[in-house]
Design brief:
9 strands; 7 helices; 6-stranded antiparallel beta sheet; alpha+beta; 3-stranded antiparallel beta sheet
Length: 212
Amino acid sequence: MKVNSNHIVRGASAILVPYKAHHVETYHKWMMDPFLLEMTASEPLSIEEEYEMQKSWAVDETKLTFIVLSPGMDGAKNSSPASEVDILKAGMVGDVNLYFTDFEDPLGKPEIEVMIAEPSMRRKGVGLEALQLIMKYAMQHVPSIHTFVAKISLKNEASRALFTQKLGFIEVRIVEAFGEVTLEKTVTAADFNDLMDVADYDKIVEVVTVQE
């Protein structure tokens, strides 16, 4: 979506940034992992196809995508960013997405998903916060949303527990043929009306470039 093309959303352990071309190489390496492909029901793409997808997703109004960074990622500059500039030094750990593709109610019932691709960053609360941040961001920028929908592999017990136990999603159906469970969470604007820490991506990049 164009709405988030220049926004950074900052939490305590998760930082959401727009999906840019310089993220593609790492993302492509992640998506060569058979486990991640199975858990996300994805097909492997060539690096050229990944670059084309990044370009198309940036302007696709049915997709709201953020790359997830975390200051706790191994090799990151600091254990916690001291300033907005340090945000872009945090390690890349996954992505979080919304898909506005429901046939009957595209702007009201987006599908939500998160992937923490770096094994060392799983089960540390990063995925939970990334989901909370994108839900809050979406509610403040797409106020027509009333329900979030998650479709999860029946093999992905960790993700299933995350959505039901931590976020309060309710299981509404199991499709054995596809090996997945569908969960939903009804929301209102009042659930997400507190202020968010949203920064200007281009301005931060400009400062980092000058400093380097």
